[in-house]
Amino acid sequence: MIAAALFIASVWTAPLVAQDQPAASGQGAGQNQGGRGRGADVQVGVPGGGREGGGRQGRGPQTPPAPAPRNEKGRVVLGGATPKDKGVWLPVFGIRDPISTYEKVPFQPWAKALYDYRQVNELEPHTRCKASGTARQFLTPYGVEFVELPELQRIYIFDIGGPHTYRTIYMDGRSHPVKANDSYYGHSIGWWEGDTLVVDTTGFNESFWLDRRGLPHTAAMHTIERFTRTNAATVDYKITVDDPGAYTAPWVGGFNLRWETGTELFEYVCQQANYATELMVGEFDKVDRTSDFIP
Question: Is residue 20 situated within a structural domain?
């Protein structure tokens, strides 16, 4: 099952994909999609989970999503309306051509060459049980859960699949440390701007991909992420990437997350021996072994 989930986790992400594309029919995370899914609608899901906003796409009339839930102070929350309302956030995918989309990214030559290499040899660290920061954290077949603890002035984002790790966002007004210890998630500070959670992060290591398709980065990367819950079923995610080590200019991407109601964080064991072979060694008709570097 884990290998199948890792297979689905590689299918696609495009931080620059247009917003509000129609969602595809839901698909269980344990199903093999038969190939890399290029040129088709894909929507992953959690086994046993429901779906906010009515039945599945194309199966009867859709119920409009309810308004975004709010706390006692009137601000939106990134979980259920009450502690009893369970759910997780999953990515929404649409029809796309990832090559034309990524032509909009202002690569430096070395970064574009590495990105092209990764299209054939998908040696992604996530398939080897490594954590993934920024946008890649939200592009897993099992989703994420936001846990806000006002008494600690922190928000935690829990990865449900893959390495099953978590990210900390400090909401107490602190600044970034002068010298952070580079890590997969970096050092994140956050604040609310109306109904939008804004997260500023530095201090990344270079051991993860920005997305499933293989966007590279360096330790100089600085990101600003914006999470806007537009209704009970949707979060509009935007990310600004500023990395002078890999790109010639800052760039902005984004996608939507959908609420999978009725699902809680569950046990998930990521074992390095459970390889998704195509992801780890590339396409069987061509595997480039001329380089000894690790993407």
Answer: yes
Query: Which segments of 17-125 does DSSP mark as H helices, in order?
Result: 98-102, 109-120
Structural domains counted in the chain? 1
> Rounded to an integer, what distance in angstroms lies between the CA atom of residue 133 and that of residue 120?
22
Secondary structure (3-state) at 137: helix
Q: Is residue 140 part of a domain?
A: yes
Does residue 193 or residue 60 have the better pLDDT?
193
CB 197 within 8 A of CB 226: yes
- For the record, the structure tokens of 52 come out as 């906010």
What confidence category does residue 102 fall into, taking pLDDT thresholds of 50, 70 and 90? confident
Rounded Cα gap, residues 215 and 193, in angstroms: 28
Contact in structure between 197 and 190 (CB atoms under 8 Å): yes
Entry pTM? 0.75
Going by the DSSP 8-state scheme, the letter that residue 247 receives in this structure is: B
Domain range for 217: 2-271
**Burial of residue 77, with CB atoms counted within 10 A of its CB: 0-12 exposed, 13-18 middle, 19 or more buried:** middle
- Cβ pair 104, 33 in contact under 8 A: no
- Asked if the structure places residue 204 within a domain, the reply is yes
In a domain, 276, yes or no: no
